[in-house]
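FAQ
Q: What does a multi-component entry look like?
A: The components come first, one per line:
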Amino acid sequence: KAGVTQTPRYLIKTRGQQVTLSCSPISGHRSVSWYQQTPGQGLQFLFEYFSETQRNKGNFPGRFSGRQFSNSRSEMNVSTLELGDSALYLCASSLSGGRMNTEAFFGQGTRLTVV
Amino acid sequence: TQLLEQSPQFLSIQEGENLTVYCNSSSVFSSLQWYRQEPGEGPVLLVTVVTGGEVKKLKRLTFQFGDARKDSSLHITAAQPGDTGLYLCAGGRGAQKLVFGQGTRLTINP
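Then the predicted structure of the entire assembly, as tokens:
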């Protein structure tokens, strides 16, 4: 069974540009969550999508957005990039729902560097 | 608001020693997971505990969920350099988003 796939693995962008990251969840998983990880702030929750609907949202500005497609694949977009957006962006998929179904399985992440 | 507090934040010990990492909260969780993350990689799920008082063992790692389902501990026996990494606990409540602790960065010195 294939794991969570994130593309690209590494990305370098210039301030002011926009970027789109992609995540393919484990087959059968309907929930996809996105996290930003930086050395100083740890793992910060961005948003969660379930069945193409945003179900939970973290405290990030509107420059951060996402969507989920009917096949559960998800994308996140960051517009007007700032230096502080440099981070490891992680995607996690889960079956969702029920006591046992909150287990999250992570991809390898996309390392975004803004210069 | 940090709902899950991990301690210690940093731990550096010698190979062969034992250690315990704690994950505490004032909130009740329906499940709690532990992850290990290596630099530049995503966190890897180690274990999930769901029953108060539950103990699970994974080779030299022992995980315990508190009776009240508010806290958890991870104990490593005879630590090895391969155990080095960032250990994260995460609490789940059904369909609500997982809540992560800030992590414990563990270094095992040969």
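Q: Is there any commentary attached?
A: Sometimes. For this entry: The CA atoms of residues 28 and 92 of chain B lie 9 Å apart.
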